[in-house]
Design goal:
- By secondary structure, the chain is an all-alpha fold.
- The protein has one domain.
- Helix content is about 75%, strand content about 0%.
- It contains 21 helices and 2 strands.
- The chain has a two-stranded antiparallel sheet with strand order 1-2.
- Helix 2 runs parallel beside helix 18, helix 11 runs antiparallel to helix 12 and helix 14 runs parallel beside helix 16.
- The longest helix has about 30 residues.
- It is globular and about 65 Å long.
- The N and C termini lie far apart (about 70 Å).
- About 50% of the residues are buried.
Length: about 500
């Protein structure tokens, strides 16, 4: 018993899962310190959609913008991450010197990709054209930086093995993404606070829509993956979560819950981002053509169908702009801005909240049924060991924001939002680091051996074969007939 207790205490500082929780909570709590009047993370670099490179970078907080240049903010961000991550590597028994060398290269390559991804003609969505003074763009959003980072990582990982070996100590996609998910909980909490003041029936319908989607989506994708594409449960479960729930976060969390090999959720995550970009380029314009008389259906559809938070929010913003413009000309109605985006984000909030519940259920199911051996007694300890600890951090940051924000004075709520959003800037950086690392670790030969082609095919079949259309039906079922207020 004593040995088990010692091992348990030791694991608190020896695994990436726990260190993701500690690091994510640390960054989040630094953001909360702003409530005391001290801004400890406002210096972190934020990347803007840009036409002039000199305007691409800036500190996340306005308080630092006069005293700190964008490049200086980037340097501070690099130094901060190098220090805190190196502490974690040392605690986990890694080679700190090699990590620092590799991380330095990874960070700067990744951030260059992140900046390129925010170039206006690549990233800007139609609702931003007027502000930027442009007439077109590829409309890929800033998340296209993830794709660039992934591509560069793939090139290095497959054509420069010596460079890959130098970087591999710092290529830790699971650690980076899990840390990002912990920080994400705070932002989801902000969304929930915003939803608290909305019409109750819209929020309730969003919740009902998510329950319906979970029960249908996940089971169907898992069945198709197992029955027709012959994937093992190790592949089918993360794939089902990635396609049907919330993309990257759900795939990574599911992989941890079922003890999948690290390569499994990593490959699924890369597919999620690629297909999310495809959805972003297609679905908002279909919504404008088909649903301009049902604006809230269109917004909810984006939230249910588009599989990453950033791409979903961007699609909601695009739909909001496109449908309001068409309604004004075709229907002679001027709807208030933001309600379609609200429907989208409300649905997405419930999706994100459910990730923690879902992976807990999967940990129990896998322990007691999928991998259970006859005569073997499954203990609560085994379920605990399987449960992804970083999900606790996600839940903690979410709950803390709610506890502080509910009933808070307007000034306190605003300060809370500023602190959480500044801390959340790190989430985007960790996501970008994740996708470069995914590319670096994704050897084409090994991907072929693992069945990457079949994975892409099942993703395509499920997403465009039924998920998008079920999402449309559910959105219609729960949001049909609801329209935004009319501008007087």
């Amino acid at each position: 018993m004593s040995q088990q207790a010692n091992a348990s205490r030791s694991s608190l500082l020896k695994t990436e899962d726990w260190w993701a929780l500690w690091l994510g909570l640390f960054i989040f709590l630094l953001g909360l310190v702003k409530l005391s009047g001290v801004d400890l993370v406002g210096w972190v670099v934020k990347t803007n959609t840009w036409l002039e490179l000199s305007k691409a970078l800036a500190p996340a907080s306005d308080a630092y913008k006069e005293s700190l240049s964008g490049f200086a903010s980037l340097i501070l961000t690099y130094l901060f991450l190098t220090v805190v991550l190196s502490i974690g590597v040392a605690a986990m028994g890694g080679k700190v010197g090699r990590f620092i060398g590799g991380f330095t290269v990874i960070f700067w390559i990744t951030y260059i990709c992140w900046i390129i991804g925010h170039y206006a003609y690549i990233a800007a969505t139609p609702d931003k054209y007027e502000k930027l003074g442009i007439g077109w763009s590829l409309r890929l959003t800033g998340e296209s930086g993830f794709i660039f980072a992934l591509i560069v990582g793939l090139i290095i990982g497959n054509f420069w093995p010596s460079v890959t070996r130098f970087l591999e100590e710092a290529a830790k996609p699971e650690w980076y993404i899990k840390t990002a998910i912990v920080i994400l909980g705070g932002k989801v909490g902000l969304y929930a606070l915003e939803s608290a003041g909305l019409a109750a029936h819209v929020v309730l319908r969003g919740f009902c829509a998510i329950i319906e989607a979970y029960l249908i989506y996940w089971a169907l994708v898992y069945f198709v993956s197992r029955k027709y594409f012959k994937f093992t449960p190790e592949w089918a479960a993360p794939l089902a979560s990635g396609i049907s729930i919330c993309g990257v976060s759900a795939a990574i969390a599911t992989g941890g819950a079922i003890r999948a090999r690290p390569v499994v959720p990593i490959i699924v995550s890369s597919l999620v981002i690629i297909f999310a970009v495809v959805e972003l380029m297609i679905l908002p314009f279909l919504a404008q053509a088909w649903l301009y008389k049902e604006p809230m259906v269109a917004g909810a559809w984006m939230g249910l169908a588009v599989k990453t938070d950033g791409a979903a929010a961007a699609s909601g913003a695009i739909v909001d702009a496109l449908i309001r413009a068409k309604a004004a000309t075709a229907l002679g109605v001027q709807w208030q801005e933001g309600w379609m985006l609200m429907a989208c984000t409300t649905v997405k909030v419930f999706i994100d909240i459910f990730i923690a519940i879902w992976v807990f259920l999967l940990a129990i199911i896998w322990t007691r049924y999928i991998e259970h051996k006859p005569g073997e007694k499954v203990s609560a300890v085994e379920i605990w060991h399987r449960f992804p600890k970083f999900v606790l951090g996600y839940a903690a940051t979410f709950v803390l924001v709610l506890l502080i924000g509910l009933g808070a004075a307007e000034a306190t709520a605003k300060t809370l939002e500023e602190g959480v959003k500044a801390a959340d800037t790190f989430r985007g950086i960790f996501f970008a680091l994740t996708f470069f690392s995914i590319g670096l670790a994704s050897n084409f030969r090994k991907l072929r051996e693992e069945g990457m082609g079949r994975l892409a095919l099942v993703y395509f079949v499920c997403l465009f074969g039924f998920i998008i259309w079920i999402a449309l039906f559910i959105s219609w079922l729960f949001f049909h007939g609801i329209t935004p207020p009319v501008v007087s």
